[in-house]
Amino acid sequence: MLDTLTDLVRTELALPVDPRVAAMAAALAAQYPGSARAVLFYGSCLRETQLDGLMLDFYVIVSDYGDAYDRRWLAVANRLIPPNVFPFQSGELIAKYAVLSEADFHRLNGAETRNVSVWARFAQPSRLVWVVDDTAAAYVVAAVARAAPALLAAAGRVAGEDMLDWWRRAFRLTYSAELRAERKGRAQSVVDADPERYRRFGPPAADAIPATARSGGWARRRMEGKGLSILRLAKASLTYAGGIDYLAWKINRHAGTAIEIKPWQRRWPLLAALTLVPRLMKSGAIR
After folding, report:
1. CATH number for 146
2. Which pLDDT score is estimated for 166?
3. How far, in whole angstroms, is CA 167 from its chain's centroid?
4. Rounded distance, CA 218 to CA 138, Å?
5. CA–CA separation, 135 and 88 (whole Å)
6. Over the stretch 117-149, which tens digit does the pLDDT of each residue have?
7. Are 207 and 228 part of one and the same domain?
8. Which of 169, 184, 219 is the last residue of a domain?
9. Any alpha helices (H) in the chain, and if so which ranges?
10. Range of the domain at 277
11. Are both 202 and 252 inside the same structural domain?
């Protein structure tokens, strides 16, 4: 059934997007001449027709971190704690984008990694909005096709469980393994936004679960995932211009809070992030 899953992924990745999204993807790729291999568009904005005022989400896949960056420390940071995340604006649209090498994109979409951040996202719909050649396109399809089996394998199936409930429970588990600002029920809404898609992908994804994949281990995944989220947040305060303001915007949007960033927090974003996160976790704004 792997061929069926691969075909489903290839078809979904090729679905059309807003021309402004395609233009933004091309502009992102142009920032990495010689190393950009593909640009993927993903996230909740895929389901939106009105993009103005929203923060679009992209992944830029590069051949190698050393080739992608002029500054060596950025390559080292991307290699040690992938991905690096940056802001971007094209015309009236704003976005954030993550950078991964082809090797890391393939690895982090697979069941061999406990970290949920990549395979949980690419088990959901995404679009391949820019690609350098057919070889890179085939590589992306193969990597993304690993994500849904990794997600379902990690959750494990409960006897008698409906396919859609398996997906819902799997996404709930992944949300618990990251710092999330979304309200309760967001994991369910991912599936309910397009249940037919998940019914279609479910059987071939289940059939493609690797024989060596193990379910469970969520206590460890949660501990490691939340710790890694804090490290990524701290790193983003150095790589992401206005990162502390973006953090506040995202939490306010998803959790219904009214966080205001003070001048000192903009001046010292790393310290602000490290002091803000525990308070937000204690209040329940992020989990």
Report:
1. 3.30.460.10
2. 97
3. 17
4. 32
5. 27
6. 999 999 999 999 999 999 999 999 999 999 999
7. no
8. 219
9. 2-13, 19-30, 65-68, 72-80, 102-108, 119-122, 134-144, 147-155, 163-176, 186-192, 195-207, 218-239, 243-255, 263-267, 269-283
10. 220-283
11. no
